[in-house]
Amino acid sequence: AARIIQNMDPTADPCQDFYQYACGGWLNRHVIPETSSRYSIFDILRDELEIILKGVLETTDQGDREAFRKAKILYKSCMNESLIEQRDSLPLLEALLMVGDWPVASTDWNKTKELNWSMEEKLSIMNSRFNKRVLIDMFVWNDDRDSSRHIIYIDQPSLGMPSRDYYFNGGNYQRVREAYLQFMVTIAKMIREDKNMSKDDSFVQEEMAKVMELETEIAN
């Protein structure tokens, strides 16, 4: 109750400006950080929790249970920037090879290199190994009809951009859309360079435009 009162502005007239009345105290005591678009009690709690987690993840292994060990390994691998820089694009090239290569960065992508190549299998690898849903989203969750059970859900995946609006609206949405396409082109060129392939900018631009067209159709 004290915290709620502290976050209010009782000097404001709630009939004139209810937002100032309900939240004025919070606004007076907190400034939105330049790195954030919002700032609430939940953001403060998240920041405090991240500091605590950082301390936990950086402690030495003291006979931790398996889940803790895995978390510490993942954290250390993300913080090891020198090794990340050293490996460069190798992990991405290995991932592309694992799922059947990338047409824009392969000269013979449409020639099946594996016997019994299965799209279903590749989609499941993307899901299980890389937590990436392509074309189909599939996950396990509580059964809406029986909360004591868990069932498999099949759904549509998220789009490449945050929402459908980005694919059709003008203004800022269009500028983001153009930047998104340019980002895809840039990444494709980098991968081709790392695979010692010819530059061929017009081919890359044409292929990524097709990707954009497909995503737009899916968004529609």
Describe the structure.
The chain has 220 residues and is mainly alpha-helical. It is built from 10 helices and 2 strands. It is extended and about 75 Å long.
Q: What is the count of distinct domains?
A: 3
Oligomer: single chain
Ends: how far apart? 47 Å
Outline the low-pLDDT stretches.
none
Helicity range of the residues? 55-70%
Q: Major β-sheet, in short?
A: 2 strands, antiparallel
Strand fraction equals 5-15%
Keywords:
220 residues; mainly alpha; 3 domains; extended; 10 helices; two-stranded antiparallel sheet; single chain
Topology:
Blueprint: H1 2-6, H2 18-29, H3 41-57, H4 66-79, H5 81-87, H6 90-99, H7 119-130, E1 137-143, E2 146-155, H8 165-168, H9 172-194, H10 201-219
Antiparallel strand pairs: 1-2
Helix pairs in contact: 9-10
Protein name: MMEL1 protein
Organism: Rostratula benghalensis (greater painted-snipe)
GO biological process, one term: protein processing
Produce a short descriptive summary:
It comes from Rostratula benghalensis (greater painted-snipe). The chain folds into three domains: 1-79, no CATH class; 89-117 and 159-219, no CATH class; 119-158, no CATH class. It contains ten helices and two strands; from the N terminus they run H-H-H-H-H-H-H-E-E-H-H-H.
